[in-house]
């Protein structure tokens, strides 16, 4: 007997058993009812469970994805808020830095003006002291001339000489202040052949703009400083050449910030 | 029926029980639901992806499915008028309401579907008993109702899946913007530190210069007094000369 025959025999046996069972069930209404109920319940449970499970999974996915979207949305929103606040703070910091720089420059310039005024006063005081000395000397000389101790020629000679010295002092000082003295710093002298002092003024607003735009204020300041140093070296070289010979001088006009 | 095992997540339905509805109730539509009147064609219960995408867009246009607000506008509104309602909060509330409505709609059809399936199975079971006659019209009607309800449930499940995918895509798109913003924040943070350093330095310099101005003002006042003193002394000297000249 082959395997194929065994299978056929088994299937036939199963059909016979099934037919026999069905025949029994038809003869037993209660049993048939129970059989139908059990299988109906199984089928119902399978259908219901499959539907519920599928939707529950989909709905859970939907909830998760929505929660993710909400969180990302809130995160992005807070990021944007933070971005705007940070921009406001940065703008404020830039503005404050510019104000501080401006205040610093104003105060520095005011200091220079006060120093210049003070130097001018000291110069005036020097003249007043000379005048006082001159007048103080004049009193006894004049008295001696009046009582006849001092000859008039000596009196006029000495007083004239002193007056000449006084006037020359005033003229020299005034000429120096008007033509040679620097307009910004009292103790700095202008040398015409050197083309004036180097321009050290750094444009601070430009640096601020650069800082706010690129965030490399230091780099810009260093570049400016380097440029200034090179400029200073060139001017020194020119001055040296001018000192050696006017024909070799290569001076350039530099505006002095007032 | 004994042995029923149907765990449910629907809030208004009891687990392990079969809901019961009349034929009219089984044919009812859920009010304010997202199931369209004209059902799309289904291939083995699956709807075309293009149709799903179009239908979701339609739902968004109709305002049924909430759309994430434009954050630039939201931010502007929040900063300019704090008393206005937060659109983000509104969006979240709408989203929650949509989900609740979706679940309610599913539960509405699911309970009817279970009832229809049960009725259908009961009818078939009863037909198997000896001596019972089967009304083919009733059976066909029950089958049609169950199939239609099943289509509704399948469509709702696929819509939930499609909306999930869309939400994930939205998150993904927003993630790029978040990364860009984070880079911008980091870059601006560096600028802020640099500005702070400049501010501290310039403030210190400004303070120093202001103190120097005060010092020169005091010095000017002192020199002014000395000038006045010498002025008086010169007048006295002149008066002495005049006195000597007169005597």
Low-confidence stretches of chain B: none
Find the count of extended strands of chain A (DSSP E, 2+ residues): 0
Oligomeric state as shown = heterodimer
Estimated helix fraction of chain A: over 70%
Distance between the termini of chain B: 150 Å
The helix-strand sequence of chain A is: HHHHH
**Chain pair sharing the greatest interface:** A-B, 85 and 96 residues
Tell me the major beta sheet of chain A.
none
The gross shape of chain A turns out to be: rod-shaped
Residues in β-strands, percent of chain B: under 5%
Number of strands of chain B: 2
Q: Biggest sheet of chain B, open or closed, and with what strands and sense?
A: 2 strands, antiparallel
N-to-C SSE string of chain B, H for helix and E for strand: HEEHHHH
Instruction: Compute the average pLDDT of chain B.
Output: 85
Structural shape of chain B? rod-shaped
Number of domains of chain B: 1
The overall pLDDT average of chain A reads 79
Q: Your description of this structure?
A:
By secondary structure, chain A is mostly helical. Chain A has helices spanning 3-27, 29-147, 152-180, 204-214, 217-244. The longest helix of chain A has 119 residues, at 29-147. Chain A is rod-shaped, with a radius of gyration of 54 Å. Residues 214-218 and 243-258 of chain A have low confidence and may be disordered. In chain B, helix 2 packs across helix 5 and helix 4 (87-127) runs antiparallel to helix 5 (136-246). Chain B has one domain (45-244). Chain B starts with 22 loop residues before the first helix and ends with a helix. Chain B has a two-stranded antiparallel ribbon with strand order 1-2. Chain B contains five helices and two strands; from the N terminus they run H-E-E-H-H-H-H.
């Amino acid at each position: 007997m082959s395997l194929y025959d065994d299978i056929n025999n088994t299937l036939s046996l199963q059909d016979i058993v099934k037919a026999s069972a069905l025949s029994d069930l038809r003869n037993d209404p209660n049993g048939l009812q129970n059989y139908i109920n059990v299988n109906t319940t199984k089928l119902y449970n399978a259908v219901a469970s499959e539907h519920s499970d599928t939707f529950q999974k989909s709905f859970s996915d939907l909830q998760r994805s929505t929660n993710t979207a909400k969180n990302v949305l809130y995160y992005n929103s807070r990021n944007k808020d933070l971005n705007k606040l940070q921009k406001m703070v940065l703008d404020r910091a830039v503005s404050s830095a510019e104000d501080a720089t401006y205040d610093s420059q104003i105060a520095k310039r005011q200091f220079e003006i006060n120093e210049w005024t003070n130097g001018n006063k000291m110069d005036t005081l020097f003249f007043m002291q000379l005048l006082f000395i001159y007048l103080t000397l004049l009193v006894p000389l004049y008295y001696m001339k009046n009582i006849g101790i001092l000859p008039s020629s000596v009196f006029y000679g000495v007083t004239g000489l002193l007056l000449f010295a006084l006037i020359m002092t005033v003229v020299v000082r005034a000429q120096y202040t008007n033509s040679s003295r620097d307009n910004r710093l009292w103790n700095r002298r202008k040398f015409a052949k050197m083309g004036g002092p180097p321009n050290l003024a750094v444009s601070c607003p430009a640096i601020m703009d650069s800082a706010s735009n690129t965030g490399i204020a230091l780099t810009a300041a260093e570049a400016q400083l380097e440029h200034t140093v090179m400029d200073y070296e060139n001017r020194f070289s020119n001055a040296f050449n001018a000192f050696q010979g006017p024909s070799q001088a290569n001076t350039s006009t530099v505006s002095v910030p007032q | 029926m004994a042995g029923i095992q149907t765990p449910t997540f629907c809030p208004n339905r009891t687990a392990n029980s079969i809901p019961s509805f009349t034929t009219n109730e089984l044919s009812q539509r859920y009010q304010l639901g997202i199931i369209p009147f004209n059902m799309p064609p289904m291939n083995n219960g699956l709807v075309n992806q293009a149709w799903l995408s179009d239908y979701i867009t339609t739902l968004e246009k109709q305002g049924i499915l909430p759309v994430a607000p434009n954050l630039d506008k939201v931010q502007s509104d929040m900063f300019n008028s704090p008393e206005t309602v937060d659109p983000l909060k509104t969006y979240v509330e709408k989203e929650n309401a949509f989900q609740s409505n979706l679940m309610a709609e599913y539960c509405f059809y699911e309970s009817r579907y279970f009832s229809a399936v049960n009725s259908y199975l009961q009818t078939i079971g009863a037909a198997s008993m000896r001596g019972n006659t089967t009304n083919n019209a009733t059976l066909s009607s029950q089958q049609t109702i169950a199939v239609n309800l099943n289509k509704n449930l399948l469509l709702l499940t696929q819509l939930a899946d499609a909306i999930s995918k869309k939400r994930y895509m939205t998150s993904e798109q927003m993630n790029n913007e978040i990364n860009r913003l984070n880079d911008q924040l980091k870059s601006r943070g560096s600028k802020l530190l640099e500005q702070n350093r400049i501010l501290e330095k310039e403030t210190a310099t400004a303070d120093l210069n202001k103190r120097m101005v005060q010092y020169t003002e005091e010095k000017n006042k002192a020199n002014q007094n000395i000038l006045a003193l010498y002025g008086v002394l010169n007048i006295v000297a002149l008066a002495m000369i005049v006195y000597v000249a007169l005597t």
